[in-house]
## 1
Amino acid sequence: MASVASLSASLQQRVSAALAAAVPSAADADPLLRRSDRADFQANGVLGLAKRAKANPRELAGQVLAALPADDVLAGAEVSGPGFLNLTVSDSAITANLAARAEDPRLGVPLAAEPGVTVIDYAQPNVAKEMHVGHLRSSVIGDAIAKILEFGGERVIRRHHIGDWGTNFGMLIQYLVEHPHELDHTESADADAGEASMSRLDRLYKGARTLFDADEGFKERSRRRVVDLQAGDPETSALWQQIVDESKIYFYSVYDKLDIDIEDADIVGESGYNDMLTETCDLLEKAGVAVWSNGALCVFFDDVKGKDGEPVPLIVRKADGGFGYAATDLSAVRNRTGDLHANTLLYVVDVRQALHFKMVFDTARRAGWLTDDVTARHLPFGTVLGPDGKPFKTRAGKSVRLEDLLDEAVERATAVVREKGEKIGLTDEEITANGRQVGIGAVKYADLSTSLGRDYVFDLDRMVSLNGDTSVYIQYAYARVKSIFRKGGGDLKPAPHPEVPLAQAERALGLHLDAFGDTLAEVATTYEPHRLASYLFQLASLFTTFYEQCPVLTAEGGAPQVENRLFLSDLTARTLHQGLVLLGIRTPDRL
Ligand code: ARG
């Protein structure tokens, strides 16, 4: 494995060196190199530098140009406008750099020099409850970020902080004690296992809730049951486990549909921190971070106030002695930094929990559980909206069932795939398999291509459209390359030829291919998967233009040009494939 520096990175280095040579005091100045339409790259850093050095920017730019080493990478360099540097790289440098990428199974993408340990908290549905679109976002975004970090060499520990604890469980377990057959499995041959589990849980939940609201005696017995659960009473624990297991059948069926791998060992829900809660509170109290207020153990913040101007505390222990969500999250921080030795903690959670995480992180810092060398970040995501622009709900005002949504996406996608698939002679099985990969890909892509904080409208028509910023469009570009090679019947040899001149569309495609590693590095530091999504969409678009403008098999330049174009096509397919894998999206060979 050999990592390859992008042309943009090597130019950046050279221009930096030239800047430093022209203005010795500017040794670490950023040349601000960007891709540009005028030339291949434009460096704007001279302007700021000239201002500081009180020099004429165009003159200074000229000096920088003169200091640039002459070699075969740079084909042209000129000063433009008030003092920009326009830089053009040679065709041969583009092809040679891509050739080095093609040699490497990682496409030349470097591994982090000093990888750390990241714990990422995502895909955290709640036991005995239906999953909703919010859980979809957390799962899809978290899965992509985890894969991208891992690809960069980071050690990633996944944590699915499922809601499997709390007072609700007293009610559910007590109901199960009094209605022992409620979760019995009946043999029904073709029923979807996940759906059957959810409907049993739903019945249990509704039954328990109704009784809880109507019957004081049951309410009291449920409260006592919570105490038994926290004390680890064996009968209570066994019933709790039964409810959790039932829910996992349902979760796994949804994740299976979503084509997301969840490992049982990574599911460490709220219950997993139960044994730490008392100690967490004691430590906070002893350190003076938390104080008793109105019977509850609270942490106060100078900058967190309610509408009335009164401070809003983080409650770690309630007045009734119970522990809340915050105590669990604080214990999880202790576990993740103290036991798992994480340097980075990520939480892919709805933006509505922003204040909660701010308070949890502040508290953990004061308590010393988060030190200066640990980064803790809440990656807040926005809301999925319905066609009416309001949070996505059914007509009856309930949240939309995730499984139904996914089924519908697959159905729509299959219709789209069928139309073309029949023309190219796909079998029914192939159409079904592709429909699933296209439909699920479309849902994930729509989510991932939206920048994290933004809301988006769940619009299936747009998501499965062949034209536009969709995964289907990208998948088609991939399949197109595959079809070129299929038609060649194994005789086509992609090979780079740096001596072959490149057409404009080839240069644009090539320079973009070369930026794959830089894009991934950016995503790994910003935690913004939409940057990878847009990179891939742009790659597919550039390939489409190349394909329209540059005949591959009938290239005028003869064998070397044919091979070079095959080489570009093949590297495009490999890059699209690798990028989509990191987003959790499949690439059917024939579409
Ligand atoms: N189960 C929660 C929910 O559905 C999300 C948990 C987020 N993670 C955490 N560590 N608090 O809203």
## 2
Amino acid sequence: RILILDFGSQVTQLIARRVREAGVFSEVVPYDVGTGFIRDYARDGSLRGIVLSGGPNSVTEGDTPRVPQIVFELGVPVLGICYGMQAMAEQLGGRVENGKVREFGYAEVRASNHTRLLEGIADSVLADGSSLLKVWMSHGDKVTGMPPGFKVMLSNEACPIAGMADETRKFYAVQFHPEVTHTLQGRAIINRFVHEICGCQSDWNMPDYVSEAVEAIRRKVGKDDVILGLSGGVDSSVAAALIHRAIGDQLTCVFVDHGLLRLNEGKMVMDMFARNLGVKVIHVDATEQFMGKLAGVTDPEEKRKIIGREFVEVFQTEAAKVSNAKWLAQGTIYPDVIESAGKGKKGQTIKSHHNVGGLPDTLNLQLLEPLRELFKDEVRELGLALGLPREMVYRHPFPGPGLGVRILGEVKKEYADLLRKADAIFIEELWNTPSGLLSEKGEPLSWYDVTSQAFAVFLPVRSVGVMGDGRTYEYVVALRAVQTQDFMTAQWAHLPHELLGKVSNRIINEVRGINRVVYDISGKPPATIEWE
Ligand code: XMP
């Protein structure tokens, strides 16, 4: 396995991800975990290499993070990245200076000398046989003098020592970030490091991760009880399944039904968790409480605040009943961690997103976040490895305030009931209609698979229609389907007209109270994905 020491870079987890993609188990720990931890970690011989991440500090200042000396004494290969390179240089007897020019973004570096790390890895080869790499740089400081035993591995004009190597000790360091996809050969470099330099086999996989994670949870919580807010979404579901695998009945889930869930969602969650998996789930039907508080409220932000506040209240009341709970588990995943790290710098609140994330302070519980290191697709894979059904694991995201932000203006139970039915028809047809595309494994993908999020929106306006011989005066439903990588920007999905036609027919025929269906063709920006 590979140990990654984190010096605070925003992209440290990407290193872990690349190592795992190479089929090798890796773990991220803070740079100051302590010598004892690292020694114990290395004791059974399974530690094959250490990566030092980037970080925001400068080694030219005295009180900034340093690499625990033991890292250089274990006899395992070490790869320093950015700050990790600078710290390695400084601590082993080289020199680092404050760069006058910051290098940020794409850069080209030239591989000088042949090293085992880079041999044969190139974006292009120059006439003199040396190779060029297109890499992603982000640094102010640079190494200006190498420690004894090192040779230059990479250079460019701005940074004559952009990479260095001591091949005898297998210490390598690069100023750029091989873990980001902008560095085209980054994967190849990390693969080379873990497989050939460290000698790791590609034998890490999700089932292994399950056992590691189960062990880690057991170690952490011991005999304590844990509570978790189960929403029916992918992240909290996978977290629940994993924690239950680890500690069984020490876990209690609280599932709050605010009356704004999708069709049959409550039943589905209870069937899967309580019945099939045998998880203890407290199911609270708080529909009346939520509807009561939402009555007469039309302002979107106000609605979000009410839903958030009521949710916290209901959850806390239920959680307090689990008297010996010491831990609050959450399905926080790595992108949430990055997003909240950036908070406060972004300025204006566009929408107050409410997640279970806002809960814990008053409960006096410690946080248990077993998915904190994983990306969404890894969480999905983990869910499958834990035996959750594919339809659940590949579900589109659903916002915390649920249908509350999909019923425009005042929320009423009557509207929610109509919307649930229309939405279920739309989703069913998306699942059932092949998109004509194939997955990487060659399996046919449905329109549900190739859209990132799709749902129906209830418009509380009535329009005139005709049904049989009679005139109707009923509500409108809008369909929304988007494609996006990161949900920050999105394109409306070009669904086939036949599919849209079928969904419209079915909704108007099957949902009494809806006589008109429209399709939303707005991108984000300027529209958002949800309508409120
Ligand atoms: P917008 O509407 O801002 O949505 O383009 C971007 C993504 O965030 C989801 N979303 C939420 N998720 N709590 C959540 O957990 C919320 O309050 C919330 N509001 C929006 C939305 O569904 C989309 O995936």
